Amino acid sequence: MAKKEDENGYWLIEGNPISKGDVVLQYYGRDVSPELPPDELVNVFRPLSEISTDEAVKSFDAIPLIDGHEFLGKNGTKYDSRAAAGVVFNPRIKDGYLIADLKIFSESLQEKIKSGKRELSPCYNCQYTLESGEHEGTPYVAVQRGIKAANHVALVEKGRTGSDVRIYDGAQHKCAMDSMPITKP
Questions:
Q1: Contacts by 105-112 with C-beta closer than 8 Å and gap 24+?
Q2: Is the CB of residue 16 less than 8 Å from the CB of residue 99?
Q3: Arithmetic mean of pLDDT over the chain
Q4: I need a labelling partner for 47 at 20 to 30 A (CA). Which of 90, 97, 125, 177 fits?
């Protein structure tokens, strides 16, 4: 998954992880349910089965790649005032990861990547089910369900999905093959 640069200076990175399943993520209680302490971090499980549905995967096709999170479009920042730095396309599941091809147009974003800002965080709509359990020894209090309507993928300093979900612009990632979901009505 090496970076290819075209004559316009645009980068193409094929098969880059943008999210993953079967992971416990931390959210503030207020973002999950009014029944949880609003200012406390709570563990939420995102099953691979939820991020890999046809609806979830297809919703990540042709969405903006931006620097930092900001909900775009209807019920958010108008796209014209916050243009994309790139585009995410051709999403698919491979070995537990949601991967996609990335085309990065912005020289500013390219410079940030070169300087070490590399982690990615997806934004999408989902529902939370209050459901206690444990995944690989980590307890959780809720589960993400019905993932759909991806809004963007953000370049961030530290994504909640983990450091393996990041820009790979060289041959450094060997998959056996966000994170910041935002819920909007």
A1: 105/10, 106/67, 107/9, 108/67, 109/65, 109/67, 109/85, 109/155, 110/9, 110/11, 112/67, 112/155
A2: yes
A3: 91
A4: 90
- CA atoms lying within 13 Å on the CB side of residue 65: 28
Q: Which two tokens stand for residue 7?
A: 């004559």
Quick one: tokens of 27? 């959210």
**What one-character DSSP code corresponds to residue 108?**
H
- Is residue 173 over pLDDT 60? no
169: DSSP letter = -
* Secondary structure class of 138 (helix, strand, coil): strand
Structure pTM? 0.89
**Buried (b) or exposed (e) across 33-56, using 16+ Cβ within 10 A?**
beebeeeeebbbbbeeebbbeeeb
Phi and psi dihedrals of 55, rounded to 5? -65, -45
The label of the residue with tokens 């998954």 reads 1
User: For 136-167, what is each residue's pLDDT tens digit?
Assistant: 999 999 999 999 999 999 999 999 999 999 99
Closest C-alpha to 44, from 56, 30, 19, 27: 27
Q: What is the mean pLDDT of residues 52-63?
A: 98
* Token reading at 92: 């698919």
